[in-house]
Amino acid sequence: MKGILKPGMLMTDICETLENTVRKLISEDGLQAGIAFPTGCSLNWVAAHWTPNSGDKTILQYDDVMKLDFGTHVDGYIVDCAFTVAFNPMFDPLLEASREATNTSIKEAGIDVRLCDIGVVIQEVMESYEVEINGKVYQVKSIRNLNGHSIGRYQIHAGKSVPIVKGGEQTKMEEGEFFAIETFASTGKGYVREDLECSHYMKNFDVGHIPLRLPRAKQLLANINKNFSTLAFCRRYLDRLGETKYLMALKNLCDAGIVQPYPPLCDVKGSYVSQFEHTILLRPTCKEVISRGDDY
């Protein structure tokens, strides 16, 4: 992907190129293998959970900082990873802060390591960086209300959180667990809130049977169950399945508590956020970085 990304590209084309490559490489096979969640391509102050909806005409610019967050799964075992792309070298220290923080926290992670101890290390690394943007110097901050997470089968967030600032939970990492280790470096407040149009949705993992009155909502739910189960999806994925005029039905599923919307998470407008992420498996005698390649 890094080889083909350049300013002037349509965000939708970037996502579809990546997604179609993943589908081919992993030999997509229904719920047995394929894409694990929508391709995040959040720009600048948007930290996470943004992907273009159909018809979106956003174009990647030279001065953008884009987080490419994507995932695959085989038999529900998910690999979640991310890297950041910026064409302007002015942003290099910001990217380096999150890359270094992520790599340091991977070194720190292990069986019986307390999650809060990882947060301390991440914040230390992150705050040792500053970045000069258009003549103004910013202290790099960890985004305090974003974190890494344990991963379960068909469950992207499995209950444990890996903080990226100090003061997190005392819970320990355990043998056999998968974790997404991710860090977010920001020039803003270091705090995100929900904003902008929603594109990401996911069926709640342990939702029981909830009776629905709207036939259209039942029909949409059947399609979600068949194609995504409890994996996250986006509106583009529904469009690709041939679903049309589904927004009312989707809202109905959200209102009923069956599906959860995940709107974009944004720091203060005008700021910049970078992210790097890897998935690790804690084996009895070592930790394996499943998503590591020769590119990042």
From TrEMBL:
It is an enzyme of class 3 (hydrolase). Transmembrane segments: none annotated. Binds 2 divalent metal cations per subunit. Has a high-affinity and a low affinity metal-binding site. The true nature of the physiological cofactor is under debate. The enzyme is active with cobalt, zinc, manganese or divalent iron ions. Most likely, methionine aminopeptidases function as mononuclear Fe(2+)-metalloproteases under physiological conditions, and the catalytically relevant metal-binding site has been assigned to the histidine-containing high-affinity site. GO terms for biological process: proteolysis. Its EC number is 3.4.11.18. Substrate binds at H49, H157. Its cofactor is Co(2+); Zn(2+); Mn(2+); Fe(2+). Residues 5-190 form the Peptidase M24 domain. The keyword RNA-binding does not apply. A divalent metal cation 2 binds at D80, H149, E182, E277. One of its GO terms (molecular function) is metalloaminopeptidase activity. Keywords: Aminopeptidase, Cytoplasm, Hydrolase, Metal-binding, Protease. One of its GO terms (cellular component) is cytoplasm. It is found in: Cytoplasm. It holds the Pfam family Peptidase_M24. A divalent metal cation 1 binds at D69, D80, E277. Belongs to the peptidase M24A family. Methionine aminopeptidase eukaryotic type 2 subfamily. NCBIfam families: met_pdase_II. Cotranslationally removes the N-terminal methionine from nascent proteins. The N-terminal methionine is often cleaved when the second residue in the primary sequence is small and uncharged (Met-Ala-, Cys, Gly, Pro, Ser, Thr, or Val). This is Methionine aminopeptidase 2. It comes from Vigna angularis var. angularis. The gene is Vigan.07G143600.
